Amino acid sequence: MSTPRKTFLGFTPGQAALLVAGVPWLMHLIAMMRPGLGTDEAHYALYGLKLDWSYFDHPPLVGWLQAIALQFSESEFSLRVISMLLAAATLWALWRLVPRLFPDASPWVAVGALALMQTGPVLMLWGILLIPEVPLVLVGLLLIHITLDLLEKDRFGHWLLLGLLLGLAGLSKYTAVTLALSVVLVFAWERQWRVLRRPGPWLAMLLAAVIVSPVLLWNMRHDWASFRYQIDHGTGGETWSLSRLGTAEGQQLGYYGPLVFLLTFVALLASWRERKKRGVRTTYAFTLPVLLIFGYSSGFDKGLPHWTALGFIAATPLTAHWLAGHWHRPALRRICLGWGGAMLLLSLFLHSELTVPWAPWSDFKNPHAALTGWDEAARESQRLQAEMAATPGPPPHVFIDNWSRAARLAWYGRPEPVQVLDNKPSQFDLWYGNPEPGDRGILVVWDRDGEEITAATLSDAKRFRSVKFIKELNININDRRLSRFLFFACDDYLD
């Protein structure tokens, strides 16, 4: 990586970057055409159908973006196109960022940063589905660019772009607060306090506040429900635990792989002696708040793997720069190339399996189970609901046990409502309400474990005075059973 050669195996750095970033992107494009929507995808697609100023669990940008896609088509492909475009823009922003942070480095360092993006199990699938982190990471990288612009030349237009980007970050995810902190850290480290005497930063803050105001207005009207949920979600109501932190970090190691996870921290620690370099300081400012805040909060409640994506991706230029300086070590080269080769094989397997399922999974062990059969289940639940509606009693509902399953059932059964039976607050309470005493309807149970499930063993059956099994719907692929849906007629809700 540190070689001064202008070509490697006949490729220039630009050509190599296009190959390293473009081929996986095209693989994503092909793979995303076939599978059904996953939990988060279906949830945010419903955001797009039910436009609002904000939502219970996230700010609105992801829903607003899906609303744009829905103007063209309601297909799975359409709902993934915007995510793919944002992912392509993210790779471009990362490629352009490396020489700005480390202007004296070989152009192959930028290629290395793009390659690191393909070596993490989570990152290698980045952009296939639209989640709040996808626009957040792009905005984060653009914020690094505009912050560097402001350090080089204080222009009024750059301050307005800074305010716009901070506002978009706030509309993406609540954790965007780390980006605002990062910008402050950069200017503090560079001792640029004199900029506060000018109108630019104040206008940037005002613009960001105006852009984020829909989130505040929504929360004011809903008793600050989203803020209270996020605070509780971050701490879990538990005392801080070192073992919980260790478990969470171990999961992060598995999700991001050793080249991204371990080498990120190695590069951050080893680069401290080079902290006088602007690129190193800027990387610290945009990486450490994310990793430290989420690391600490994981001691209260385990997080999801993509929550730290912003920190790890922002660190890839520094990690690639550190690798370039140590690439002469044979052991390190073997480890990197070996892991990179293994991840290439894993990527080929995952993309081929998503495109045309071929692996001989055993019954109920196929990962396609979460993405397949929900359209059939939605149609069947509505058919059974219509049959029940023809019998004496109140209008029947469709019930399911939690919001994650409700998202897929509601999307494929749109616009019919789906009510969630658990007692945890969710966006579905606001959309479709909660069951009332005396309600009846069809309870849909999704099983991907092959367990024996009857009205007597079903925990949600205790919520009704009467529960009767109706039918079973098996979901198969390649003559293997992926999962099954069980349908129960429920009468007289008790809670």
Name some characteristics of this structure.
alpha/beta; 5 strands; 495 residues; five-stranded mixed β-sheet; 2 domains
Characterise this structure.
By secondary structure, this protein is of the alpha/beta class. The protein folds into two domains: 13-355, no CATH class; 367-493, no CATH class. 58% of the residues lie in helices and 8% in strands. Helix 16 links the parallel strand 1 (397-400) and strand 2 (419-420). Helix 8 (177-189) packs antiparallel against helix 12.
List the helices and strands and how they pair.
Layout: H1 13-31, H2 39-49, H3 61-70, H4 76-101, H5 108-117, H6 133-152, H7 156-172, H8 177-189, H9 199-221, H10 225-235, H11 242-270, H12 278-297, H13 309-326, H14 330-355, H15 374-389, E1 397-400, H16 403-412, E2 419-420, H17 427-432, E3 441-447, E4 464-477, E5 480-493
Parallel strand pairs: 1-2, 1-3
Antiparallel strand pairs: 3-5, 4-5
Please summarize what this structure is.
It is built from 17 helices and 5 strands.
| Residue-averaged pLDDT | 91
Counting structural domains, the number is 2
User: How much helix is in the residues?
Assistant: 55-70%
Number of helices: 17
Number of strands: 5
